[in-house]
Amino acid sequence: MTGFAESRRVATVALVVRNYGEAISWYVGRLGFVLTEDVDLGGGKRWVTVAPANGQGARLLLAEAADEVQGNAIGNQTGGRVFLFLETDDFARDHATMLEKGVEFREEPRVEPYGTVAVFADLHGNLWDLIEPKR
User: Fold this and answer.
1) Pairwise CA distance, residues 95 & 34, whole Å
2) Contact at 8 Å (CB) between 110 and 74?
3) Alpha carbon 120 to chain centroid distance?
């Protein structure tokens, strides 16, 4: 026993964005995510979450920058490293669809020991991996 509950998971990851509407449009329109929540918290703040359409994996909390410090983190939340990993069961299909929808890939697809992968940038420049893991 570790003292922790046996059933825990990372459910939501905050992502600092410039504008709620712009971010919702990009994640829904280009990545095929669904808007799962959009709750007005008052004072210009909202609880906005998006997630892959199949409901698997963590949700993204789209957090509009509230000040200069947060604004400076937009697009560089991990210091230029890949930030998030979008797993797929069909790399070729999703890669082609994302290209068609205007997603900017930073490299050609490659095969690694862990799967087929290519790095892409979100609307603010955060780096993601599209990956089909080896099964």
Assistant:
1) 18
2) no
3) 11
Hey, what amino acid is at 132? E
- Each residue of 59-70: pLDDT tens digit? 999 999 999 999
Q: What CA–CA distance (Å, rounded) separates 38 from 57?
A: 19
**What amino acid is encoded at 15 in this protein?**
L
The sheet carrying 45-52 orders its strands as: 12-17, 59-64, 45-52, 33-42
Q: Rounded to two decimals, what is the model's pTM?
A: 0.92
Is residue 31 within 8 Å of 10, Cβ to Cβ?
no
Distance of alpha carbon 84 from alpha carbon 126, whole angstroms: 8
The Cα 15–Cα 12 span in angstroms is 10
Tell me the per-residue pLDDT of 88-123, one tens digit each, with 9 for 90 and over.
Answer: 999 999 999 999 999 999 999 999 999 999 999 999
Tokens at 129, concatenated: 């991996």
Q: Find out whether 12 and 58 touch, Cβ atoms under 8 Å.
A: yes
Q: Do residues 125 and 131 make contact, with C-beta atoms less than 8 angstroms apart?
A: no
pLDDT of residue 12: 97
